[in-house]
Specification:
Length: 268
């Protein structure tokens, strides 16, 4: 009886949790196809693809989306090496120095984004560096690199240091050990860190708002549209992003299952 009650409560919680996650996305996606000037599914005026056409013709929105992608790719390119190097360094030292370095790297995660954005702007302004997308990249890297570091550091906990020592004893250089032994072990964490850095950059608002200069990113553009009057073109863009994300996740899952089937296949 107790088991049945627990199963029922678990299923109820699961359904409520999924509804909490998915219903807002469904409503938001439905608004992209509603022939209403206001982004809503109630009342339903009629089915239309007009907002996707208007999205294509919205030059400012497309430019802001392009800027967002460029910033996100730059953040990934910088955050992953910095976070990985910090994780390897922290993992190789002990004592109070390790704790101090770990605290310095983690501190930006606990700092409000507005503080990081203003600090980045003031610091580089002292060096006569004007605001722009480059400052947005540097400001985001200052805290996103910490996420990469935490992922890589967690992966390093399962690394067998004896493999490294054995390779050095057999004549391998430190560069070869890094390339042939350590990095292959870190690839899953590096991939996860790159994905997290990419999406953290895309959704960033506070830092970008203070450092972007005259350029728009998607979050800043949406914020400006909310103040002046938002249209369902934003919903149309969200639908496209969701479809692309789901397609990417599906492709990764299919590839993973294919790899598992190959590994499980008997060797002839």
């Amino acid at each position: 009886m107790t088991t049945r009650k627990s199963d029922w409560l678990f299923r109820l919680y699961l359904y409520v949790f999924l509804a909490y996650l998915l219903l807002p996305l469904i409503v938001m996606g439905g608004a992209a196809f509603n022939d209403s000037r206001f982004p809503s599914v109630f009342p339903w005026v009629g089915f239309t693809g007009h907002w996707f056409v208007e999205l294509w013709n919205d030059t400012r929105l497309l430019n802001s989306f392009k800027n967002t992608l460029l910033v996100a790719l730059a953040v990934v390119a910088i955050s992953v090496p910095i976070g990985t190097a910090a994780a390897i360094l922290i993992n190789s030292i002990t004592g109070s120095l390790r704790s101090a370095l770990y605290g310095v790297m983690v501190a930006p995660i606990l700092t409000p984004g507005a503080v990081i954005g203003i600090s980045t702007l003031l610091f580089w302004n002292k060096l006569s560096v004007s605001p722009g997308l480059h400052l947005a990249v540097l400001g985001q890297v200052s805290y996103i690199a910490a996420f990469v570091m935490l992922l890589v550091l967690a992966r390093l906990q399962s690394f067998d240091r004896s493999l490294e020592e054995a390779a050095l004893d057999l004549g391998a250089s430190h560069a070869m050990v890094m390339r042939r032994i350590l990095m292959p072990h870190l690839y899953p964490a590096l991939g996860a860190g790159a994905v997290i850095a990419f999406f953290q950059s895309i959704e960033n608002f506070n830092i970008t708002l203070f450092t972007r200069g005259p350029y728009d990113t998607m979050t800043v553009y949406v914020f400006s549209k909310v103040r002046s009057g938002i249209t369902p073109t934003i919903n149309a863009l969200a639908v496209i992003l969701i479809v692309v994300t789901l397609a990417g996740a599906l492709a990764v899952e299919l590839r993973r299952r294919q790899a598992e089937r190959k590994a499980a296949a008997p060797v002839v």
